[in-house]
């Protein structure tokens, strides 16, 4: 878990387009922040800046009070789960989950423990030897989640992780993500177009439009439903 502070963050792409403008947000330990807004409003750009996969053009990003603008992605203690899952097709489920830890030269026994623990949480124990092409969409999605979990990040960033799944799996995975948030005590930042996901998962909803925050509120207030 971690707190994040986004202070006057801007993103200007090399072609001069300002995708995120003067973004200010305080995120507390264990928050489950949801970003909503029309396609192209800057949600993914903001996530990628937090992950360190995109430079911050202006402003300051702090994690637990420390400025991290110039800290590389791999040193940020943040994991990102993409909509496309981005699994390695030639690696097994086990190796997909172990890959990042191997790069970091984590001892084999420790990797094994972490991968098996994540597999247990995500119900992937019987699938560890399979390659991604032999998995269903929901299973691939869980592997992508597993790859993030094994790194035990303080912050999880998820960019529409459920949008490629059918309705039934989406409901199932939504419950899993809520449980993970509880169990891991991690801070989550989550992009979705799905109002049910926003309402059931979020502690705070950030509404964006044209690179600007329009509103920040609890799901109860924003969607005005009775408690
Ligand atoms: P969202 O995730 O809300 O759909 P994005 O953050 O992906 O929005 O994109 C925000 C805006 O920035 C869009 O108008 C998009 O076309 C633009 N954009 C994204 N990547 C680049 C880039 N590399 N160069 C220029 N413009 C970009
Ligand atoms: P991987 O695909 O396993 O992340 P890469 O070679 O792409 O491996 O990246 C090297 C390191 O950069 C990874 O071990 C990881 O720590 C970090 N990294 C890569 N992608 C992300 C991401 N989406 N979020 C945070 N850190 C990342």
TrEMBL record:
Lineage per the UniProt record: Bacteria, Bacillati, Bacillota, Clostridia, Peptostreptococcales
Listed GO MF terms: ATP binding
Record keywords, A-Z: ATP-binding, Nucleotide-binding
Name of the protein this chain belongs to: Sn-glycerol-3-phosphate ABC transporter ATP-binding protein UgpC
Biological source species: Intestinibacter bartlettii
Domain ABC transporter: 4-227
The keyword ATP-binding belongs to this UniProt entry's keyword annotation: yes
Keyword Nucleotide-binding appears in the UniProt entry: yes
